Amino acid sequence: MLTPTTSNSQQQALLVALAGVLGAHGLLTDANDCARFTTGARYGQGSTLAVLRPDTHEQIVDCVRLCAEAGQALVLQGANTGLVAASTPDATGRFVVLSLERLKKHIEIDPINRSVTVDAGVTLQELNDALEPQGLFFPIDLGANPSIGGMIAANTGGARLIKYGDVRQNLLGLRAVLMQPAGEVLDLQSALRKNNTGPDLKQLFIGSSGAYGIITRAVLQVHRIPKQTATALVVPRDQAAVLELLSILERDCSEFLTAFEGVSGAALQAVLKHIPSISNPFAPEPLPNYCVLLELASTADPQVTGIDLESVLMRCLENLFGDVVENAVVGRGKDLWRIRHAISEALRHEGKMIAFDISMPRSSFVAFRDEGLALMAEKYPWIKVMDFGHWADGGCHFNMVWPQGEGIPQFDNQVVQAIRTEIYDLVVHRYHGSFSAEHGVGPYNLDFYQRYTSTAAQVLAGKMQSMLDPQRLLGLTWFGPVQ
Amino acid sequence: MLTPTTSNSQQQALLVALAGVLGAHGLLTDANDCARFTTGARYGQGSTLAVLRPDTHEQIVDCVRLCAEAGQALVLQGANTGLVAASTPDATGRFVVLSLERLKKHIEIDPINRSVTVDAGVTLQELNDALEPQGLFFPIDLGANPSIGGMIAANTGGARLIKYGDVRQNLLGLRAVLMQPAGEVLDLQSALRKNNTGPDLKQLFIGSSGAYGIITRAVLQVHRIPKQTATALVVPRDQAAVLELLSILERDCSEFLTAFEGVSGAALQAVLKHIPSISNPFAPEPLPNYCVLLELASTADPQVTGIDLESVLMRCLENLFGDVVENAVVGRGKDLWRIRHAISEALRHEGKMIAFDISMPRSSFVAFRDEGLALMAEKYPWIKVMDFGHWADGGCHFNMVWPQGEGIPQFDNQVVQAIRTEIYDLVVHRYHGSFSAEHGVGPYNLDFYQRYTSTAAQVLAGKMQSMLDPQRLLGLTWFGPVQ
Predict the structure, then answer these.
(1) Same domain for A250 and A234
(2) Which of A232, B109, B236, B252 could form a disulfide with A301 if both were Cys (CB 3.0 to 4.6 A apart)?
(3) Tens digits of per-residue pLDDT, A440-450?
(4) Cα of B22 to nearest chain A Cα, Å
């Protein structure tokens, strides 16, 4: 599969045909023009013969037909914000990039149904800008600004999943273009919350890294923008108290809990050290060993409900003081979230980042963290673990930094791979967790997919992929067993 | 496919082998013993050679291997509460029933993770009884008491979907036995809220009427039992005001809204006429033309939040009086829900029921209902439409009754089929709705699946079915194009 299947003259003929479909702005072949499409957001630098930039669904259908006929492989790209190298071509040059960033004409809001029909190339921010005047938003809360198609292909989760669910839980319908029969359109654009009319085929395309078909349009359930929020940065008594705090919040504040983000003391220290505009929120107290950023939100009208969420949060925390909670800062939501959002940048100042996107049952968190930290301290004492995570949904960025300096081993990719394997083995085998919580699977972590996915599951995923893309032209990720 | 593929002597040999696997209690062949397994909850009376009643997953694996080897077709049955005839055999005798009702040993609750691992034969009531001491419940609210496996196979929704979602949205993992390779186990029993490690294979088995594989275990997200509810039966100004009321409630009471059930005046009249213990809740006012049963619920601790939901509801409705709302009864939640739950029984007293389980975008409800009522009044004036529906999630039971009496045409199945086709055509073609909202697809409505599902979707669904069950031994429902 790694050698181009088309000859040079065939490729030239294909490019001429594609130019006919896409017009002058729709086809890039100059290497400078193509550069940003071949560079991954975190991993990967590839090369491509051309970038196809259709701005209509019909052009995509035509491109797919032409490419399938020519045996030309495609890699799909939305806003190119993915973190597993699934949206950029490899270095072989055998792929052309099919970019959907210009497919963004259509945004149709149905406020009574609380739904929106949207082209796949529309970005999350563009969608939310269009929804805002109606008091609505698409509640998948991410650090990046991906396209809607990319969000579906990765089934993104984010920081507020416990309240709103992931993309899958908010996707009512979609339209996809298939590779087999090439260019066939599967139109499943319904805007229904209840619809059980046979197998739900749209599920095939969610979280499949673009390997099963090309999403060109989505119908999404949207939500009302909250009318008030209350935020606190809380220091739990110890690690076990983090889980106690989560259970108590779900019991006492239940429907209001929108975020429960654990932040390690090491991550917090890095933020204060490298981001000068952020100061210790607990001053004059020293920084804690661990803290939790928690948020309550209410979408209801406070004049009708009489709810003042900040008071609710204060009351809830007061009951816990001295027992579950040692310290807390309530209010200043923007400032507190700034701390949380500054972690990734701060970590980069500390050295080379080794990022993790793992998850586990919430009940495993304390034991996993203890064991993970002990493992690292024993075997890789020069590595700094600076973890943070979405405890309410089980997601954990068990991130680490490899610093530079005297007495510290040189950065070594093989050691990094060994660390990743040990941490993933721990989370998957011992704690029944996942090696990829919200970033999906692509070339960057495909070897781990093969390591942790049962043979039965790989066989079935591969059979489906062969059925949907028998020439194996779509994307870089093969979900079947290694051949 | 309609003739038995096994000869009598082969069948006898198979029964002996199955008896070896299942033991004395696990295999029924006596026609009296089998009767309750061959009679559908609403439709269908079939016959079967035997009922297989495994009580372990391993027995199911062995049964599947033996049946696949013998070419023996199976129909899966949970608690046999389905309404589309998918869980009972047809009259040909070519099926044996694989009943999962004895597969119910395992219920393992993780209260910190708010999840439960449960055998497929456990019923909804049994599950909720086990969860109740932990303050937890599985929130799919149904009139029946199905098995968990059946609920997944039908992706049931129910009356509180707007708050809790459907089964799909609460299913974290499952284990299935495949027909190809026969008896292969696909173990996807993770308890994770964030897990994107390739195509989500468990989705194949949700809402597929048991045609793609045999679910033997599920991992479910569960929820905290609400601490308070507030209920009202509300008379909106007119039909348009129903949608206004829904929008206002979502704006003002948002996260508390758990049910919004429309009830037609005709259905209400039937309840009062035939259920003597229920009296007019609006007395001394006459019955309204239409009313809405709405429910708010809060899981949070009222001592912490200070919320009194009944006051919230009163305040909200007071603002609407004279404009959107004409009358309302607040409180007496049990009595008000009794009215709603009595509708089906009351309708049976009125004549022969023609049941509908349709859905549409919420924004289409008023126009659909107007047009549907006008169509019936014009073409079938003797039929009484007595509809009710879950307006918040778009579900609508546009049920009707064919009464007996002087001047009324004799009940005629062909006319019923014509009515069903006209109503489905209206909802699907004109209002972009669904002919099966929450009951799924089975022999009862397979012809409508074929009528309303695009060829591309049927081809893909059929390809998957052929891949998963090449001998076509599993169940009565073929999702591919008519052959």
Answers:
(1) yes
(2) B252
(3) 999 999 999 99
(4) 26
